[in-house]
Amino acid sequence: MLNHGAVSHQTKRTNLIADSSQKLECFASCKGAEANAYVLEIMRAHALPMEAPTEILTDNAANLSVGNNIGQASASRHFLRRYGVLKRRVLAGECKWVKVADTENPADCLTRWVPMAKLRKSIEYMENSRAHVA
Fold first, then answer.
1. Of 12, 43, 105, 128, which residue is least crowded by CB atoms under 10 Å?
2. Global confidence as pTM
3. Residue 42 burial (CB < 10 Å; 0-12/13-18/19+)?
4. Adjacent-strand bridge partners of 2
């Protein structure tokens, strides 16, 4: 989001056969960072520098821990290369990794059943309806 509008968004079905939710979360976080790098390059071309790093949100504690060198990575050695690329993007200041609470995660409605109140809040977030309120 930039100036209350979506700059880039994507919903995509992965072709991964994942043996852990961490692997899927890693894949999604890395794809988000790749899209962010593309958007930052366009911003630089238009002389529009970012004031702060883009937040890459995750609700998976293992994903966040391994990505920030806090957690044990022994079960994820086969896909740590992706983390390496994401870590370089974080160190370069392009983005930062942030844990989002399950109660605040707007994407939950895309992957599981959620209460109606949370569904409405998620739809409001995805439609960016709050930006249109004066």
1. 12
2. 0.54
3. exposed
4. 5
